[in-house]
């Protein structure tokens, strides 16, 4: 059977399981053609860490260990030479997972079978840049991954395959990121045989159910203690590990990594008031209910248990916000 020539395009940790799955797909799997990753596209090395040294993306790191050609254009939309180079690989399919660069129509049409995307939501819900966090913030009870055919629009293409997973009451953005990255890799391998031979037909998305997952900003992670405790708890879970929910204590900014919520507990204290502090955490009045901070991070220090933070200071009567 003729190998399926694949260009892989991805950048962050989320994309690594999908690339690894393509490289390690069992050759004897029923109906699966041999897979040949002919090139890996990833964003250019970026400064990272305190030293601001150039750092390869997680996808590039894996590609280099497996001896794959790595291509890192600054743009595919404004560089005709980069598009010509991509077309020269004569790929059957391009697999895109959190690549981070816009793909012009000339790139979408270059592979024989076009481009498919591993997207971390149950489309058409949460098209866009931050589907994991937006699902948590909205209080969704379910999310998942979709394998979709890419079009010029933002996540508008028809869907080949989808896999759902429940969102647990303690799931964080980090938890869902890792789970969906693994689910996406499995869903990709499941869908590939049907995509390759044309037997799997993609289904158009229902336009009347579209929602958008707008890009995260640091400003939206500032806690408004007048909001209900349930909403604040979703913020804390969604923004872990970035940008991390935060609040002010006097002149300091505290980053809140985890908390427990008592949505029904009543208090007469003003929102943001510390109403209890002890071994179980720091209890703060919300607009409705109580938020018990369990893990936090003071400026210039590592994240710590709330009880350890309390060893160094008293919060009696303190106000956050």
TrEMBL record:
Pfam families: Formyl_trans_C, Formyl_trans_N. (6S)-5,6,7,8-tetrahydrofolate binds at residues 121-124. InterPro entries: Fmt, Formyl_trans_C, Formyl_trans_C_sf, Formyl_transf_N, Formyl_transf_N_sf, Formyl_transferase-like_C_sf, GART_AS, Met-tRNA-FMT_C. Its EC number is 2.1.2.9. Keywords: Protein biosynthesis, Transferase. Residues 19-192 form the Formyl transferase N-terminal domain. The keyword Protein biosynthesis applies. Residues 215-312 form the Formyl transferase C-terminal domain. CDD domains: FMT_core_Met-tRNA-FMT_N (cd08646), Met_tRNA_FMT_C (cd08704). GO terms for cellular component: cytosol. It catalyses: L-methionyl-tRNA(fMet) + (6R)-10-formyltetrahydrofolate = N-formyl-L-methionyl-tRNA(fMet) + (6S)-5,6,7,8-tetrahydrofolate + H(+). One of its GO terms (molecular function) is methionyl-tRNA formyltransferase activity. NCBIfam families: fmt. Belongs to the Fmt family. Attaches a formyl group to the free amino group of methionyl-tRNA(fMet). The formyl group appears to play a dual role in the initiator identity of N-formylmethionyl-tRNA by promoting its recognition by IF2 and preventing the misappropriation of this tRNA by the elongation apparatus. This is Methionyl-tRNA formyltransferase. It comes from Thiocapsa marina 5811. The gene is fmt.
């Amino acid at each position: 059977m003729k190998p399926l020539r694949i260009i892989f395009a991805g950048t962050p940790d989320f994309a690594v399981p999908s690339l690894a799955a393509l490289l390690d797909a069992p050759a004897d799997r029923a109906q699966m053609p041999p897979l040949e990753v002919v090139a890996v596209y990833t964003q250019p090395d970026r400064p990272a860490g305190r030293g601001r040294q150039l750092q390869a993306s997680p996808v590039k790191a894996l590609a280099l260990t497996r001896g794959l050609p790595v291509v890192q254009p600054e743009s595919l939309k404004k560089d005709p030479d980069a598009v010509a180079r991509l077309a020269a690989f004569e790929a059957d399919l391009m697999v895109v997972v959190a690549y981070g660069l816009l793909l012009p129509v000339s790139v979408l049409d270059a592979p024989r079978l076009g481009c498919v995307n591993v997207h971390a939501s149950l489309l058409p819900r949460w098209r866009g840049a931050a589907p994991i966090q937006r699902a948590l913030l909205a209080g969704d009870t379910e999310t998942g991954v979709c394998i979709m055919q890419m079009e010029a629009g933002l996540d508008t293409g028809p869907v080949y395959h989808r896999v759902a997973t429940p969102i647990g009451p303690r799931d964080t953005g980090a938890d869902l990121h890792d789970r969906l990255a693994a689910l996406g890799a499995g869903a990709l391998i499941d869908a590939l045989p049907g995509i390759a031979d044309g037997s799997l037909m993609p289904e158009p998305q229902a336009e009347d159910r579209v929602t958008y997952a707008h890009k995260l900003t640091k400003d939206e992670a500032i806690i408004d203690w007048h909001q209900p405790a349930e909403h604040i708890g979703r913020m804390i879970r969604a923004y872990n590990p970035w940008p991390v929910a935060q609040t002010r204590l006097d002149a300091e900014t505290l980053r809140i990594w985890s908390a427990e919520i008592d949505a029904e507990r009543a208090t007469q204290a003003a929102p943001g008031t510390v109403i209890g502090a002890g071994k179980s955490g720091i209890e703060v009045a919300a607009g409705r209910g109580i938020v018990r901070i369990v893990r936090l991070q003071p400026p210039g220090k590592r994240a710590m248990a709330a009880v350890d933070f309390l060893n160094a200071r008293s919060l009696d009567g303190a106000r956050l916000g």
